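subagent[fold] <- orchestrator: predict structure for attached chain, return tokens only, no commentary.
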Amino acid sequence: MRAIILLGGQGTRLRPVTCNTPKPMLPILNRPALTYQLELLRKHRIKQVVFCLNYLHRNFRDYFSKRRNFGLKIDYVKEKFPLGTGGALKNAERFFTGTTIIFNGDILTDIDLQKVIKFHKTKKAVLTIVLTRVKDPTIYGLVETDNSGRILKFLEKPSWDEVTCNTINAGIYVFEPELLKYIPAGVNYSVERGLFPVLLEKKKPVYGFVSRCYWLDIGTVEKYLQAHFDILNGELKVSIQGRKIKKTVWAEKNVKLGKHTTFDGKIVIGQNSKLEEYVQVTGTVSIGRNCYVKKGAIISNSVILDNTVIGEGARIEGSLIGKNCFIEPHAVLNNGSAVGDGSRITRFSKF
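subagent[fold] -> orchestrator:
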């Protein structure tokens, strides 16, 4: 069986850090988010993968051409212009040789794909949409099913008076090739707004598989930070790179720590990074590769990407700092701050 991963989005909700890096290639604990999906596919014996690409497409090729592909055969399909979820699938039509798994590229999950595939085949479905439950249904498009799992209707961002369920589209599908005949070629087309309602109108066997596994859409700064925190807190069980230098502190190769550096939390430090004397790292923190944290800096519940310098006495709390940044001495970044790649925050600034 083959999987197709939709990777063409521009990651607008995650700006500024997606201005230079496509969202699926943003690191989570110092490796691209997409690699977690590839590991999941390999775990479930799916060995062929197609990347549907548009925005910053070379980032994907550059990374995967230089590294092992997790034991997978990876093909690339590039769009000449953004085609949307449906248009991207139509553009990759030649790869639909049988039942196919479709993934949105910004999903972090540990779903049991074999269970989903078995459900799909048992129901003789043409399309199975993985569903997940949410606490606030009014901020999502809902998917209502009957007792057998057959999808009855889609409801886009309902008011509380309209809410009939709390299951939403999780961005994972089992897809039969015959569905491609309903998708127009060469135009921007959405499966969510176009294809799926058409299939219900035609009374095709479309089912929803309700998953109780871990699931997160990393599409906002807040959710991207949460992905790091969830892994470090054990909510999603995946391997963490580096060796444990303390019970809950992982460090990759060539990390240098000052004698009086202190840790209180769950922390990952990337290769070749240096933390000077009296640096304090607390909460859940990911520090990228080739970073330099100078004397007396404080980092709490934050993510620092590669090649960034944190100046002496700076304080970073609940923030996302992009690559190649320079946070000058005694600058303060408080909860919710997001700093784009290559930024310089001048000394004593407060955000």
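orchestrator: received. Logging for downstream: The chain has six helices and 29 strands. The two ends are 49 Å apart (CA to CA).
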